[in-house]
Model the fold of this input.
Amino acid sequence: MMKQDKDTFTWPMFKRLWIPAMVSSLGWALSDMADAIVVGHSLGTTGRAAISLILPVYMIHCMFAHGLGLGGSVKFSKLLGEGKASEAERNFNTIMTLAVLFSIVIALLGNIFIKPLLAVLGTTPKEGSLFGATKDYLHVLMSATPFFYVSNILNYYLRNDENQKIAVIGSMVGNICDIGLNIIFVLVLNMGTRGAALSTLIGQIISILIYLPGVTSKAHAIKWRIEMAYLKEGIQCLVAGLATSIQYLYQLIFFLMMNRILMKISGEAGVAIFDLLQNTSYLILYLFEGTARGMQPILSTYQGEHNEQGKHKILKLGLTSGMTVGGLLIILIIVLPQCMCLLFGIEGAWIEQIAYEALRIYCIGAGFAGINILLCQYYQSCEVEKAAFTIETLRGICLLLPCTFLFSWGGMHTIWWLFPATEVGTLLVFILFRKTGRICIPSFDSNRVFQFRIDDNQEEIAMMHTKIEAFCKKWHAQPKEQYAVMMAVEEIYLAIHLKGFVGKAGENIHMILVAQTDGSFDLHVRYNAKTFNPFSLETVLIDYSNAFDMDAMGMMLIKKTAKAFYYRHYQGFNTLVVKL
Done:
């Protein structure tokens, strides 16, 4: 029968993306932690302080790489959801061209002005070993900039192009190599911070090499070529992505300020504890980031389909799954903080006691940080950049900096309360802004969207015709347009029902009919048959057979009357888009 409520597609699609994203995020967390762990055990407090001082540069890289990757891939996935495959391919190449050119410039400038940059980071030749360790790491990090950009952006696009298997394999193998080389270069060959940075560079190169088959495959939408004519579009995607990735700029400011405050309060020991908290945050927050990455491709696709029901379900799934895995880890760290100290080489009764206290205080706010991350990704993926920007600005600077100054007055025992105060405050202020109307969430008129589902017990097709006809008339469709829409729905349904589900039980077809503001209609169809493209019936059944096949004839008529049509097999299901 025809139904409007039950959604049997969203959870399987989310699960297919969430599990690989979580595996990748765990690998990234371990890779980011590896430098601090290995260098900490090799060089002690000086090594950990050098890693902490270098974080602002890493944040700049992340801001632009993730801004391009996220902003570009959100538009890429939405374009595919709208059936605009050629525009999606152009989007990918525009972003990649912009990323390569920009990262080369950054790498050159960073190496030319390395000494002034080190002074800004907070270390000069007077610090001796600390200056040398930081300089060695920074030199390699700046040289690796293009590889860092390409690797991260490819990962975003591969996940949005249903190539999450290659994405997770590439990131995991690269991160494992990074960890292994860290041990060899730093502990065995005694290369210090330079060895740690080299291991990261080689890991990125290995990831890129594994990603490349996903770019050259003809079965997917992304194909790599230089695209110079649409750099304006690339900059627009960067601006959109910065609504979320601006957090890295805020973190840069915060790190510079926090490192200087801690150096005054307690010297290298305070910076080392701060580095411990940062690496602990990688382990916890990357679980929420992984969940957010799993949400994004489906949210962007649903945004293109105007599927509000599906978007809300994805948010619920993200909050439930993220809080489950993240919450368990938070509890474990609160109970056993000594494990983290042992892992990062924090030794000594005084510093250990403060580290235990700092870890437990940080964990109080980590769950709220996870909620903020998931909400931010939700709004970013739904193209509500203002809401995402508000969350990141509140937690990244507007509340974070005042809280840092406020709690630093009490010294090493109170400064760590800045983390829970910032995250809880961000969530409360954002909720207040939403309720008072200071942040408006624009949405497509839900009255222009008609959703229905057909399963094994479908009602008479005439009932569906009646509702579709009423919907078309409501939005002033002419008789010819009404006929085209009803014919498309009927012929696509019959082709899928008769040809797609041969030998397969559990038929489920979900259709979304959208009345666009320009007077056209978009039909989005998702169904759980075996891989089956109804638009292929014309050549298979008419050109090469003497039999007259009405299903193939119907699809041929749709192709002639439609403005555009597009098919892809996405996240285990078939997807059609027809513009009428």
